[in-house]
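Ticket 4471: requesting a sanity check on a complex prediction with adenosine-5'-diphosphate. Repro inputs:
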Amino acid sequence: MKTVPDFWFEPHPWINGSWQPGSESVTVSNPATGSPLAQVTRASAAQVNLAIEGAAKVFTEWRQRSAVERGNILKRIATLLLERKDPLARLLTAEQGKPYPQAVAEIEYSASFFQWFGEEARRLYGRVVPHPEADREFIIEHKPIGVAGLITPWNFPLAQAAKKISAALAAGCTAVWKPAEATPLIALAVAPLFREAGVPDGAIQIVPGRGSVIGNLFADHPAVRVLSLTGSTSTGSSLMAAASRSIKRVSLELGGNAPFIILPDADLAFAAEQLCRLKLFVSGQVCVTANRIFVHSDVVAKFIDLVAQRLSSAHVGNGLIDGVDSGPLIHQHACTEVGTLVEQSLQAGARCVVSNRSYEADRGNAAGAFYPPTLLTDVKDDMPIAQQEIFGPIIPVLQYIDYSDVVQRANATPYGLAGYVFGGDISRCRAIASGLDVGIVGVNEWRPLKAEIPFGGVKQSGIGAEGGEEGIREFLDTQVISLPKPKY
Ligand code: ADP
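Returned structure tokens:
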């Protein structure tokens, strides 16, 4: 069993390079055991404003550093994250609940964004455009927008922030980061790494606190020029409304309701294994997780058997214990919400094939926020479980007969984040993938996300993108300079 590391940081807001005790404290607990890990103080309104003003002050200096220098600092952050990945991952598991190997993978994934944007910093090219008048020319330049207000959720408490911070710093912006209330520790734990890598004090401020309070402070401060949120669609809507008061740019990564489509010629054992990995990953609390599993009627019985075997053999428990495949949910309220969706489905005619309660074997899990990985069949499109984002380890199976019908059903949701297609005929998979109204599709793959590609939703799943060459644009303004053309 792994242990919770001793803290090398203080549980207070990180402002201008030091920890500054905040106004009131909140208990952060281990969701696997229910036991408290720390009392973290929230940033007061005055501290949030101080943090924004500190970030605005250092912005004038940071933006003028060379792209190479900014990039090298980002790459040093990546190196430091990888060097410290064991204690960081143990802390992440204790705070968030995901199994230790998944926490290690999150640190590595986070580092990949610092590495990627460390390289992208050097590629912020502008362009020269011919003017209609012979003696003039246009120069188009991309400039850092200013201070970014970053708001992140608890499912990937480091990676969701890493995507934003790395792009913002590469662009020449500074940022104030509000981590989720359930997971502020990993944020405070990486603060000294930023400093060690050479990020100037004030360029990344960390202000734990309530979402709506800090969101409004960000929205109303004139120095904040962009609000970047990863969270639920309803939070995105509230933040967008707040941002409209002073016309701030918003960049939103919101909820999903991903279809996972099994074609009749799919390798069913492989698809079942990939589906279970996806649904056990962070206990299904992932915006891109499969929410509706559409299986062709010719293969549905065999596919359900394969998924049932794999799901019932998974080891659910405390993520710090070796060999655990899936941890708890983030808190008891999350269990209640998932449980309600499952109950509604059963009452409406769905059938429960697997409910894996292996965590009950360990008495240490008695006070944990565990919900059994569950396989439901006979799910219908109009059941709430097929219409809402589940955020839990539930596999709801729906049947289809016709290819064009399945694409239409898959798209019949206000969300459009991710989709998955499993099949043998790649051109058919490709055609179905193209028909899905989503930001990213994995064909015969459960986790297509990488730093190299833009990730962002369509419809109510978001605005903008993270990663790829697109991710940095969220933090840039475009300026045109029209000037006389030098003669030679
Ligand atoms: P989740 O359901 O994953 O917790 P939320 O959207 O509730 O998603 O939370 C994501 C982040 O948004 C958290 O840091 C949370 O504190 C913050 N948040 C919640 N409500 C608001 C709001 N009205 N304005 C700004 N941020 C918010």
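Notes from triage: The chain has 14 helices and 20 strands. Leaving this open until the requester confirms.
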